Amino acid sequence: QMQLVESGGQLVQAGGSLRLSCVASGWNIRTYTMGWFRQGPGKERQFVAAFRGNGGGTYYADSVKGRFTISRDNAKSTVYLQMNSLKPEDTAVYYCAAGQRIILSSVGRPDAYDYWGQGTQVTVSS
Q1: Cβ count near 66 (within 10 Å)
Q2: Predicted confidence band at 89 (pLDDT cuts at 50, 70, 90)?
Q3: CA-to-CA distance for 40 and 34, rounded, in angstroms?
Q4: pLDDT, averaged across the chain
Q5: Each residue of 11-38: b (16+ CB within 10 Å) or e?
């Protein structure tokens, strides 16, 4: 059974850093595009970052570019989201997602992904 499990979310002060992890169990993520999305209270799920499979590139939402970094360790079937210079508006539940054969123009679309984790809460206090 293919599962994604996120961890690392917590309460942090503005300007601080966090690293989120997402472990895929039961499969190897090498060929998968791995994405991070977030959903704040009363908001729609929003694209944060993605890392295409098979040696593909990384992509970021404008709101996190320069502050967040996505990385992956295929051998560990794990993807990370390093978040620096956190702001109160980064407060949200962060979700990990995986999908295959996602075309470049769709990496930011939640409906392009097949598998989702349960989410981890990130709260940034001002």
Answers
A1: 9
A2: very high
A3: 20
A4: 96
A5: ebeeeeebebbbbbeeeebeebbbbbbb
